[in-house]
Design goal:
This is LITAF domain-containing protein. The chain is mainly alpha-helical. It is about 50% helix and about 10% strand. The protein contains 4 helices and 3 strands; from the N terminus they run αβααββα. The chain starts with a helix and ends with a helix.
């Protein structure tokens, strides 16, 4: 009986060593295969030019003025909020879009 327990303990120790080696190999492989950064420049969805610029709209003074006129101080604050939107503009064709905005094939080739 004690011989079979000793054999079982040896087998368990051997399995632990094997699993540690497999885990170490997997860690080495995963660290070696880190994803490459995307080197493709951002392009205009209409003309495919890489000459683009991005602007962030700050606080909208016109909306704040209208909100202040209609609803007082609270309207001024809420009218001026929401102006922190990014708009990307192509310098070649003038197309404007929001970051991450997906386009259909129709929009890509037939939009103005």
């Amino acid at each position: 009986m004690s011989k079979s327990l000793d054999d079982l303990r040896k087998w368990i120790e051997e399995e632990k060593k094997q699993s540690e080696l497999r885990l170490q190999e997997l860690r080495e492989r995963s660290s070696a295969t880190e994803p490459e950064p995307d080197d493709e420049p951002i392009r205009c969805p209409k003309c495919r030019s890489s000459q683009i610029t991005a602007q962030r709209d700050g606080v909208s003074l016109s909306r704040a003025a209208v909100g202040g006129f209609l609803f007082g101080g609270a309207g001024m604050v809420t009218g001026g909020l929401g102006g922190n939107k990014i708009l990307i503009t192509c310098l070649k064709c003038g197309k404007q879009w929001k970051p991450g905005q997906e386009q259909t094939i129709f929009e890509r080739y037939f939009s103005d």
